[in-house]
């Protein structure tokens, strides 16, 4: 009976977050073709400086302590953790503001950025807005309040996309219209979360003493999880920064657009499935091992089935789809997407399982996975860029990434006692089968 209730709760939470995923996906699908005609690849490339900087600084400013909000159980530890996070925010935002003001010109020169550099001045505001949003959603996951997270995700998506479209039209495709609307994510938090648990957390004062004690209690987070995430982000963003520094913002923008399209399902899974899965296994891992294994395998299987056909279609028809949907300027972006789709499917179905590292207290496994992934991405990319044309270099990057995610899946399979080889072999064969059928259809009708 208890197992049945837990299963019903899990499915109910998934359906709640799934509704939000469907709505935000529809918003993204309907607006992206319009955005691709308002903004040039150069604009996407310059806006990429901002988004990539936010990604790195978002990890550094919190030392990955916000990710512990879901798994910490004792109220006293939670109080000190929230105080420590707020202290890190203050220190980090002041430091980022000073660096952008004093070293902005040098940063632009290193990045080969020819824009006016105003995106650098917006970094502290964008960083603060993103931290508040992630903090609120983490508290909601802790409380299993997934309905509020759905409201936050849908409303922020509408705000950001709406003002991006309006700004792109009003300012003739200026890159700032891609940057400024991201600051609006904090507005839904104020309306939907102000009188809930965020209001209580807001009154907890920052404290250097609590920061020191929290870093002692949760030392694995900055030591292992932060290091792992920084390595993963560095490996993921390596092509963008290499193309930016060695080539042009336009080529970097084409790559970033292709990557962003492939990451839409992955980001939506991160918002919809990962929080529910983490909240579920944080209990079942310790209390019901069989249920934990069943839920983990089910999650991996369902995500593979969801992604196998779309990614196979992109792998075969990516260039044609991009040029038809987004405009002829994005044909090269579609070619890049075809090569990158090789690994995106396996990232989709294995990434949520990284939550196992936290609940099993195997944070060093996460660091090991990211070290291997970093090497398997960067070394083939470096080899390809030196000896091969650009698209072949991206294929080397994609194949190395695929091997890295297989290694990650191997590690979580060891922890969860999953049949790694059998599951992976089935998935590889299905993906090859779908790609082969689509390739034959393309060959016949073209």
Briefly characterize the structure:
The chain contains 18 helices and no strands. It has helices at 2-38, 41-62, 75-110, 118-121, 123-142, 146-170, 176-179, 186-193, 197-202, 208-217, 220-246, 249-287, 289-326, 331-350, 355-359, 363-387, 390-416, 420-445.
Overview of the structural elements:
With 446 residues, the protein is an all-alpha fold. It folds into two domains: 1-38 and 219-446, no CATH class; 39-212, no CATH class. The protein is 85% helix and 0% strand. The protein is built from 18 helices and no strands. It has helices at 2-38, 41-62, 75-110, 118-121, 123-142, 146-170, 176-179, 186-193, 197-202, 208-217, 220-246, 249-287, 289-326, 331-350, 355-359, 363-387, 390-416, 420-445. Helix 5 runs antiparallel to helix 6, helix 13 packs antiparallel against helix 14 (331-350) and helix 13 (289-326) packs parallel to helix 18. Residues 1-5 have low confidence and may be disordered.
Please mark out the parts with pLDDT under 50 across 5 or more consecutive residues, or reply none.
Answer: 1-5
- Which percent range describes the beta-strand content? under 5%
Helical percentage: over 70%
* CA-CA gap between termini: 56 Å
User: Order of helices and strands, N to C?
Assistant: HHHHHHHHHHHHHHHHHH
Rg calculated over all Cα atoms:
22 Å
Helix count from the secondary structure assignment: 18
Summary keywords:
mainly alpha, 446 residues, 2 domains, single chain, 18 helices
Topology:
Blueprint: H1 2-38, H2 41-62, H3 75-110, H4 118-121, H5 123-142, H6 146-170, H7 176-179, H8 186-193, H9 197-202, H10 208-217, H11 220-246, H12 249-287, H13 289-326, H14 331-350, H15 355-359, H16 363-387, H17 390-416, H18 420-445
